[in-house]
Design a protein that fits this description.
- This protein is α/β, with parallel strands linked by helices.
- 40% of the residues lie in helices and 16% in strands.
- The chain contains ten helices and eleven strands.
- The protein has a six-stranded parallel sheet with strand order 1-11-8-7-5-6.
- The chain is globular and about 50 Å long.
- The mean pLDDT is 96.
Length: 283
Amino acid sequence: MAQLLKGLPVAKAIAKELSERSGLLNEKGVKPTLAILRVGSRPDDLSYEKGAVKRCAECGIEVRRVIFSENVTQQELIESIEEINRDDTIHGVLLFRPLPKHMDENLVCAALVPEKDMDGITEGSMAGIFSGSGKGYPPCTAQACIEILDHYGIEIQGRRVTVMGRSNVIGKPVFMLLLKRNATVTVCHTKTADPVAECSRADILIAAAGKAGVITGRHVAPGQTVLDVGINVTPEGKLMGDVDFDAAEPVVGAISPVPGGVGSVTTAVLAKHVIEAAEKSLN
């Protein structure tokens, strides 16, 4: 039976550490603060917002909600972002996407300064990830993968890692985070000639393809660590990852479940970014 890499213990450990760091910031007159910008009331946005607010409260982070109707103009949203950029009492921003179709999402994201971009949505943040400059922050889900590996004592340095998926949200940033930790990383995508071979030879497999059950029993190998980043809803209404859990679990050494795995660590990473931004503000 594989070790289950559950996300809740990871999130709790991160929150405990952040609460202590928040207390130290308070002693220095700094209240870590996150601004949540939401346009409309999409159910998934509301669900994540609820979890983020709860996690921030546990970590001593103040949350300010800035809510707009669906018909807000692009200029109004950009002006709000620019105002937050100038507000030294706000250390981080979470902007929910996708934005309404009448907006240029790239243009709106570009208005946010990387220093306050808590979820890696700006080009400045991505550039910082690739250059290693420390400017901006990686997407929370990508970093959540690293946090889980570290929490469970799974070595990254020198290991062969295969990432299934090359999105800007997970695939590309997690590739760079792993490379920074001295892993040897392969990225698979729809044009990869033999994904089964690439996946099965890895020590660590990160499934982030966005397709239910795309990783089968053929893709995994004994002793392997598998992180399933996928969140998919089947036609029957069942929540399922990118990995066929029933086929992979008897084979691999460790695997994250869906739900209850990587996704449950993302709000803790968001809180961690806010604390880090607040600490940087002291300088």
